[in-house]
Automatic annotation (TrEMBL):
Organism: Tyrannus savana (Fork-tailed flycatcher)
GO molecular function, one term: tRNA-uridine aminocarboxypropyltransferase activity
Xref: InterPro entries: DTW (IPR005636), DTWD2/TAPT (IPR039262)
Entry-linked Pfam families: DTW (PF03942)
Coiled-coil region(s): none
Lineage, opening ranks: Eukaryota, Metazoa, Chordata, Craniata, Vertebrata
Gene name for this UniProt entry: Dtwd2
Protein name: tRNA-uridine aminocarboxypropyltransferase
Segments forming domain DTW: 1-188
Enzyme Commission identifier(s): 2.5.1.25
Enzyme class, UniProt record, top EC level: transferase
């Protein structure tokens, strides 16, 4: 796991990489590389190297990334990104065989949105989303809403659905749970979602002056999906 011995997560990783038929392409915003508590390395440690490929960047052109372009043009490729055009992943899994590739964008919500909309390649695959009411277990990092999940959690749920194996989700979440436990034992605090803080009058930061950001906060408080 490349962590200090005192907080080593290796005992919580699977002894052998999980056997999955779906290959994940993690499109990672460069800012995520410098985060100490990022979850993608834990995800990669749970899967075979050829089933979890990480590409770091903001812009992905067909000329610079021909392999990715080929993947995006494959009719069996899915991209996990919520929105009005996205289909429930469970419906896709029932109607079609397991895809060869699933693309997941790793970054903050604003970073992921920038990557998705400014790279035309990512609008070629079928867009899917997760329908879940579960709260994130990544409690040491603030999420926008109560049901927003980390990249590792999204991958765990998605793989469990596509592989039709619930134990995959449990196995991948195990090191994340251990990571959060270690951090809380060493002084970290539980981070409630921004939605929770706003609704309970606990948000202690200055409200944004930007009208668009302020409107997003109002929607959170009023239970409007954003």
């Amino acid at each position: 796991c490349s962590r200090p011995q005192k907080v080593c997560l290796c005992p919580f990783l699977p002894v052998h990489p999980l056997k999955v038929s779906t290959c994940l392409y993690i499109i990672q915003h460069p800012a995520e590389e410098s985060r100490v508590l990022r979850t993608v390395p834990l995800l990669a440690a749970c899967l075979p190297p050829d089933k979890c490929k990480i590409l770091v960047g903001r812009r992905f052109s067909e000329d610079r990334y021909p392999e990715l372009a080929t993947v995006c043009r494959n009719p069996n490729t899915l991209i996990l990104y919520p929105g009005a055009e996205a289909t429930n992943l469970e419906e896709v899994a029932v109607m079609s065989p397991s895809p060869s590739v699933m693309i997941i964008i790793d970054g903050t919500w604003s970073q992921a949105k920038d990557i998705f909309y400014k790279n035309s390649l990512f609008r070629l695959p079928k867009q899917v989303q997760l329908k879940t009411s579960n709260s994130s277990q990544y409690v040491i990092r603030t999420q926008p809403t109560n049901t927003c999940l980390s990249t590792l959690e999204c991958a765990a749920v998605a793989l469990a659905i596509m592989e039709k194996n619930k134990s995959i989700q449990e196995t991948i979440l195990h090191p994340l749970q251990a990571l959060c436990s270690f951090q809380l034992q060493h002084g970290a605090q539980i981070h409630h979602s921004k939605e929770h803080l706003l609704k309970n009058g606990l948000y202690d930061k200055p409200m944004p002056k930007n009208k668009r950001k302020l409107r997003r906060m109002e929607l959170l408080v009023n239970n409007v999906k954003i």
